[in-house]
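Consider the tokenized backbone below.
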């Protein structure tokens, strides 16, 4: 197993599976667990000093998101990158986020604009410092804030699950020259569209942003060395 979890400390007062799931999910999304790599439930349980049950439950959730392939009588592995599933994730995310932006445009107030600009500033600082994991976190915070403004509280959870396959590419995309800067400018355009209170304009700005991101994703998929 190429990753070491022995230094990670779990909070024993909270459900263990709910802590192990995001831990393993993050390792898969960031590429620390490479596509096709074996996920040894017994070794993970030993490193975390837990029984195999919460590890197995966490892996089951990852399997439901198609991030892990569980085969009977065979090794459990991180799922390989699948072009069709990534395209499907993109189409689902785009539809949901365009509706989110359209709904948010009708509810935008100055406090919402200030919130989005604050997130944008943190995102920009992370890019300047080349802290790419933080840049991705702030990118997500921006989109999550728009779903909050839209007053669709359950929407972000659905988007987050649907975009899991896309996220595996994002950690490869962001360090590319100009990619993060382009994202920042597209986010500024989304804020301008939201401030117009025009749902169609906001949806179009979101579509343009996500379409551009997907074109970069395709470039990553067509590049060398992806499993």
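A designed sequence for it:
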């Amino acid at each position: 197993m190429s990753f070491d979890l022995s230094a990670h400390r779990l909070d024993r007062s909270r459900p263990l599976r709910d802590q192990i799931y995001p831990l393993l999910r993050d390792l898969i999304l960031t590429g620390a667990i490479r596509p096709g790599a074996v996920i040894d439930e017994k070794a993970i349980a030993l490193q975390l000093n837990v029984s195999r049950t919460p590890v197995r439950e966490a892996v089951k959730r990852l399997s439901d998101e198609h991030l892990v392939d569980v085969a009977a009588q065979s090794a459990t592995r991180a799922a390989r990158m699948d072009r069709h599933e990534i395209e499907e994730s993109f189409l689902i995310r785009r539809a949901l986020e365009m509706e989110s932006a359209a709904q948010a445009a009708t509810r935008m107030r100055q406090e919402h604009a200030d919130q989005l600009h604050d997130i944008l500033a943190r995102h920009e600082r992370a890019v300047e410092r080349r802290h790419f994991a933080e840049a991705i976190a702030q990118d997500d915070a921006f989109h999550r804030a728009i779903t909050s403004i839209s007053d669709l509280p359950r929407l972000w959870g659905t988007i987050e699950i649907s975009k899991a396959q896309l996220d595996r590419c994002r950690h490869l995309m962001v360090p590319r020259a100009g990619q993060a800067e382009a994202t920042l400018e597209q986010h500024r355009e989304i804020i301008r569209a939201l401030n117009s209170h025009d749902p169609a304009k906001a949806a179009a700005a979101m579509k343009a942003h996500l379409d551009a991101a997907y074109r970069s994703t395709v470039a990553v998929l067509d590049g060398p060395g992806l499993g």
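DSSP finds ten helices and two strands in the chain.
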